[in-house]
């Protein structure tokens, strides 16, 4: 194997003894030598245009902005087009033009193939987009499907830029989330935990008042809401209100919403004090066990986590702090404990915590597959333990981690046997902790009940 030699430095010698430190090259020398080396390129060269592609007019995506006024360059492209493609409403604005009209409907594949065929036949094809094509628009969709050799994108003024300009808010640090046609608020939950300004695109279901109720239900109360309806239309309106005020108002379906933080955000964290938790009868996973369980799970920022038998949600809350870019599902069947989870979610502003009230494993069918799972109890009957562990192990993603806490020796043995039958390598820890308590004018150590923690990893070959 050929050895690369750095100019001016002799690398044949090993690390010197401490007495020879003065002879070892400095960091500056090493960096200089590396800069002088002929290192291989890390960025691949651009793909050259094919001759047949170079001779054709590019398929142009034209951002119409938010107003009816076009830039001269945009108007020139529009007027020279022989094929126009857009949604029905946007095409209707240009019904007077002689160009062939191609309506864009979902799925887009047929329309895209037609447009490419027209382009190959020499037509000047232009796709019209509301706002800016690359801001949750048709430009992003077509850019994923077509080569840069084929596309030319002319930007327009986006609703984000217009809304931020009206609010005098720099938009380079704004988190952008589209709820239009999504049906879920997952991205909003993650964005809310950042404490950054958020721009939201809404629809007839995810209206500003519904968004405000969603956030307040999770304790996210540090935002004010700026709502811009029908920007650059005759029915345009705007308002600024608090989230509680927004829940009492009615809004239209075409809104751009800015959430601007006005107070310090709250968020879950590791090592939550027991006294800060709302609990029913003081029944929850104690801090030392939570710390050991979370260490065994090794939760990553984008993980999807299940906390089964969540109690008041102590483990789930701390998991939210680790999976700040993912989701945590707290599953609990006891109604009083579910209410405690809801209260704790509000206290800590845990926007990415979803609460599932029901019996596991039946209620797990509708949940997405997890990256990590913590099971906090529910192994009193052998048949329930077998059913639950079997379902969890089948649903856990390859490479996912499982941790189960047990107080009873029988529960521990049942879980160990079930995992052993699957061929999973397990690790068992016994967590024994003592805490100080008052005794007369002094203190003593009082032992807490020992807890067994069994953990395992699902390897790729374990997929069944």
Structural description of this entry:
This protein has 464 residues and is α/β, with parallel strands linked by helices. It has 3 domains: 107 residues, Cobalt-precorrin-4 Transmethylase, domain 1 (3-Layer(aba) Sandwich); 101 residues, Tetrapyrrole methylase, C-terminal domain (Methyltransferase, Cobalt-precorrin-4 Transmethylase, Domain 2), CATH 3.30.950; 189 residues, Vaccinia Virus protein VP39 (Rossmann fold, 3-Layer(aba) Sandwich). The chain is built from 15 helices and 19 strands. Strands 13-12-11-14-15-19-16 form a 7-stranded mixed beta sheet, with helices on both faces. Helix 12 links the parallel strand 11 and strand 12. Helix 14 packs across helix 15. The longest helix is centred in the last third of the chain and has 14 residues. The two termini are 42 Å apart. The N terminus is likely disordered.
Which features would summarize this protein structure in a list?
single chain, 464 residues, alpha/beta, Cobalt-precorrin-4 Transmethylase, domain 1, Methyltransferase, Cobalt-precorrin-4 Transmethylase, Domain 2, Rossmann fold, 7-stranded mixed sheet, 5-stranded parallel sheet, 30% helix, 22% strand, elongated
